[in-house]
User: Fold this.
Amino acid sequence: MLADSNDENKFILVEKWASQEALDAHDNSEHMVAADAHSPTFRAGPARVQKASAVF
Assistant:
């Protein structure tokens, strides 16, 4: 996880998923739905997903 140097309330989480389907399944899994319900302020808004690929 990376912290935004200009905003202490923003961070960047870098993850690697095998496929979009795997990420979708994770987001809809029981533990993620429960975590979101337990802490609704964890995400102030929808996550912004930026897809990238390695260049080296």
